[in-house]
Amino acid sequence: MSELGHWPISVEIAVQWGEMDALNHVNNTVFLRWMETARMNYFIDCGFSELYESEGVGPILANINVDYIKPVGFPDTVTIYNTITLIGNASFEMGYRITSAAMDGATVAAGTASCVVFDYREGKSTPMPDTLRTSILEFEASGNA
Amino acid sequence: MSELGHWPISVEIAVQWGEMDALNHVNNTVFLRWMETARMNYFIDCGFSELYESEGVGPILANINVDYIKPVGFPDTVTIYNTITLIGNASFEMGYRITSAAMDGATVAAGTASCVVFDYREGKSTPMPDTLRTSILEFEASGNA
Amino acid sequence: MSELGHWPISVEIAVQWGEMDALNHVNNTVFLRWMETARMNYFIDCGFSELYESEGVGPILANINVDYIKPVGFPDTVTIYNTITLIGNASFEMGYRITSAAMDGATVAAGTASCVVFDYREGKSTPMPDTLRTSILEFEASGNA
Amino acid sequence: MSELGHWPISVEIAVQWGEMDALNHVNNTVFLRWMETARMNYFIDCGFSELYESEGVGPILANINVDYIKPVGFPDTVTIYNTITLIGNASFEMGYRITSAAMDGATVAAGTASCVVFDYREGKSTPMPDTLRTSILEFEASGNA
Fold first, then answer.
1. Do residues C37 and C11 touch, judged by C-beta distance below 8 A?
2. In this complex, which chains have at least 3 CB pairs below 8 Å with chain C?
3. Which chain D residues touch B if contact means CB-CB below 8 Å?
4. Is A20 close to D17, i.e. CB distance below 8 A?
5. Average pLDDT in the D114-133 region?
6. Per the CB < 8 Å rule, is A74 touching B17?
7. Which chain D residues contact residue A18 at CB under 8 A?
8. In whole angstroms, what is the distance from residue C124 CA to residue B52 CA?
9. Are the C-beta atoms of A30 and A98 separated by less than 8 Å?
10. Distance from the D83 Cα atom to the nearest Cα atom in chain B, whole angstroms
């Protein structure tokens, strides 16, 4: 069984009325905002945010991919699940799943994000520090899947 | 004691990371989004949304006023309180207060909204129906203040 | 030479200050907003919006993929290029390229969108009407590539 | 004739499709985004942004007031006009007017912003520096009104 992909993060967010667009459902950009909030929670919880504060090494978003599965309306509360699925030398892959309370937990979107580990002081990508790799594996081990 | 201004609505919303701007606190536009979500909850709960569905009579936003009192960051959860403070012939006034959980419930913003009662079928403002006025007074009576 | 992929749409949009996030560059969600505006211009210009008005047949967004290539700041003006690259039976693929005036036209992002042709009256996907296919091919022929 | 209120700033911004909400016109929050972009242009052009960079003295938004006069749709291009109407000891007042190209330049919204001059290094409000006051008066003199 893989050490990754255990979905340790879930974040609940109330849909806001103004997030709906002229087609009467939540606009496609909002799903990225939700994914980003889950991602930031992941980075805080696994110690990546702290590493950025202390060492200037942090993530940069390189690619986003989203499958829009069901339209979301207001009022509703979504839950965003987030996990790291792959760690490369200087990059990593994240997975996302978004479910709707109003639809009894049905999956409304799924996606991925590719991130690069970046040394902001040097201005270039850098191998993922071993301490961070270990923290991520420990954090993933706390997940439910 | 007034029949209005009893703050029957409170809505909790988790701050999202991407709602912060380049000054590292939540952007001024987001406070209006939060107020709008509280307002829509008010309109649903007092029966105004139903009146719009059945009769085509609904509110139009005419003015917004916001005092920005304290900057809000991520992560945090805000609570938006909403009440109607005045009912005119074809208009009404709403009051808002926003508090922060991270600041132990301190008020971070306060505001007002002026709305006009609009007959969307006739394309003009219209006196507030007596049934709606009664519903609002009953809904306000359920408030905590 | 293909009849598609001729990039008939280009839209200029001024970056707004509040579109930057706490990392001091334009937030990842904004690129989807820009792509969406270009897409709506495409749908208006190729006659798809008119078909939606008259027949209730319109597009639904199924997938978005974005490569973030360079960070964008304020002030700047971006240009979003949009084309259809593939037409299937009841779906089609779009391509996007976003360039920055402040970076002398450098490409800051590239992406794709997958859309399904949807009959909103029947509530299900539907084959793309031949008239629309013809309009799209004619519109693509007006492109620069 | 006053030295202030000469409207030296005008900024054109293309409406984006996704800025419309479920009522099919531009959401009320977007007007604040537009006003903010005009304000940042004002601060750059009058030297306030430079003062913030060099001295850590910059503006903080204390109050926003907006009259929503006409609904705005897509496609359209708005022009935001911005001026300073009053300079106090440690604060100043700005005026806004937003017009629509699709409505032949009709005013769609008007508003004000109250700002405080803030010393970010000291963490408290501070009197407006005389050099900034002079720059603002010179910049206002370049206006059209």
1. yes
2. A, B, D
3. 27-30, 32-33, 36, 60-68
4. no
5. 95
6. no
7. 21, 27-29
8. 28
9. no
10. 19
Confidence class for position A141, pLDDT limits 50, 70, 90: very high
Residue to substitute from B27, B29, B31, B72, interface C, most C β-carbons within 10 A: B27
B22: distance to nearest CA of chain C, Å? 4
**ipTM exceeding 0.90, yes/no:** yes
pTM of the prediction?
Answer: 0.96
Chain C residues whose C-beta is within 8 A of a chain A C-beta are: 27-30, 32-33, 36, 60-68
**Would you state the structure tokens that stand for residue A92, as one six-digit string?**
């990593």
Tracing tokens 């495409």 back to the chain, one arrives at C42
Beta bridge partners of B112: B65, B95
Measure in Å the smallest separation between the Cα of D25 and chain B Cα atoms.
Answer: 12
Of the candidate CATH numbers 3.10.129.10, 3.40.50.300, 3.40.720.10, 3.20.20.390, the domain formed by D9-139 belongs to 3.10.129.10
Please write the tens of the pLDDT for every residue from A42-56: 999 999 999 999 999
Residue ranges of the domains in chain C?
9-141
Q: Summarize pLDDT for C82-105 with one digit per residue, the tens.
A: 999 999 999 999 999 999 999 999
Alpha carbon distance D92, B44 (integer Å): 39
Residue B137 identity: L
Backbone angles phi, psi at C47, to 5 degrees: 95, 0
| Percentage of chain D modeled with pLDDT above 90 | 97
Q: Is residue A31 a contact partner of residue A63, using CB atoms and an 8 Å limit?
A: no
E-strand stretches of B1-145:
9-14, 57-68, 77-87, 91-100, 106-119, 124-125
Domain A9-141 is of which CATH architecture? Answer: Roll (3.10)
- Which residue is associated with the tokens 């950025």? A52
For residue A8, count other CB atoms closer than 10 A to its CB.
21
